[in-house]
Write a structure and sequence with these properties.
5 helices, 3-stranded antiparallel sheet, alpha+beta, 35% helix
Length: 212
């Protein structure tokens, strides 16, 4: 009888693990869709312009990293901007909270009890003066797309439209990058990849062999 139970456990454990991961990924997808809806409402109220709140980026401790990520894509500032359009003050998914609790490159809190674990690559600089071509501060989605094409950033490529441009993404630490600390190498919120919110507010999962 014990042998039978052991065999059943060996068979069913991976199934249960996959089911739990699927549920966490679904919740993360739902969170990102709500985030996308908040962006849509904000843009509608602000002449289709994204915020230029580099001041908030600095207030919350702008910190480019010498390892990975090479800038500071943490996004706690966005809760101050989009708070009235959102139901929750926790901008994260269960998997990221579990895996990146206390990781400075990911976790960020404000003084109102809000917390974020998502990254926003194109709001990752706080340079004064003109906004870099590959950042979105104060731009419309169409201008952001046009500027990305002009920047010809090899990490972005040549997007065909706003549905190809990431707005927010699960944090990840590629195992192929030497500067990634060993304790984080290959880690992401979800096994085998990450959820991504795009400028057209669609959400898709990307399988990434660098995070297996």
């Amino acid at each position: 009888m014990i042998a039978i139970i052991a065999i059943l456990a060996a068979i069913l454990f991976p199934v249960f693990s996959q089911a739990r991961e699927a549920a966490k990924r679904a919740q993360c997808t739902s969170n990102l869709k709500q985030f996308g809806a908040a962006w849509t409402l904000y843009l509608g109220d602000n002449d289709d312009r994204m915020p230029d709140r580099r001041d908030l980026k600095l207030t919350y401790g702008y910190r480019p990293w010498s390892s990975w990520p090479p800038s500071d894509p943490r996004s706690i500032w966005v809760l101050d901007v989009l708070g009235s359009y959102m139901k929750q003050s926790d901008l994260s998914c269960p998997s990221s909270r579990a895996k990146f609790k206390g990781v400075n490159q990911v976790e960020q809190l404000n003084n109102k009890g809000g917390v974020t674990y998502y990254w926003m690559w194109r709001f990752d600089r706080a340079d004064p003066g003109d906004v870099p071509l590959d950042n979105f501060w104060g731009k419309s989605p169409d201008q952001a797309l046009a500027d990305l094409l002009s920047a010809n950033n090899p990490t972005v490529g040549q997007p065909n439209g706003t549905s190809d441009v990431e707005l927010s993404v699960d944090p990840y630490f590629p195992k192929t990058i030497p500067s990634v600390p060993d304790s984080l190498k290959g880690k992401t919120g979800h096994f085998d990849g990450r959820n991504r919110l795009f400028l057209d507010t669609s959400v898709r999962f990307l399988h990434d062999v660098r995070t297996r």
